[in-house]
Amino acid sequence: MWVETPDGRRVICHPRGKKRQTVVGDRVLWQSSEDEGTIEKVLPRSNLLYRQDEIRTKSFAANLDQVVILLGAEPEFSESQLARALIAAEAEKIRPLIVLNKRDLTPLFERSWQRLEPYRAMGYTVLATAFKPRHAADGAATDPEPTDNEALAQALQGKTSLILGPSGAGKSTLINRWVPQAHVLTQEISSALNSGKHTTTSTTLYWMDAAKTTALIDSPGFQEFGLHHIAPMQLAQLMPDIAAQAGECKFYNCSHLHEPGCGVLHAVQHPGSEAAISATRFKIYSDLFAELSQTRY
Question: What is the pTM of this model?
């Protein structure tokens, strides 16, 4: 791993001891040793995100201001993956920002935009972008539809943002738009660490400005967020549509799965009501509740 000093130097550093405890975004105290260094201490974090695979859960990013979840009009995005990312951000009190890219693919975009209507209703900010404008017959670039490209640029300013997205959503295009040297820098880092891994397997921080006030963190793929640190009974409060109806339950310790007088179940069973909860969202909740229950018990 490497550490960037205040003057911009990048130094290969190794954690003291065998257990790796540092993640991208960490602020550390380190000590120089010849041409490399040793990480002596990780400073207190404001937040920490986890990811998981079939074997384990591990931390991967810290000290974030926001999580930008980039989706595309195509391929069709997974609402379950979107929900996990939003829950992970909510649990750490990190601002989530949903971005639907490929505004120029009008029919496909409209369908995806409609799928995101429940999230706009929950209060999440959802922006529409297109990073590859169409070209007129004379070769000049044209804006096919109004986009929120400028609004996204403003939302990134002065913040450390984790950029997430499934393959094909346009994540690389977004990062290269504001950090043209990102590909070169990634190759340099990979070479310096001699990891032997493909560059897309690493999580990397890039500065957007010379003053180093705005950072983008590129994380490979749209990995499953590790939510195992969340208690099952805490889950409802991290899903705004579920939380909004949880206060209507008859029992204070309602799991919102089978209890009589449950406000959440009532909202699911009345899809036409103003406070309705979609069957898709409730299935995500119930599946996650079962997953978290199995993990803890």
Answer: 0.86
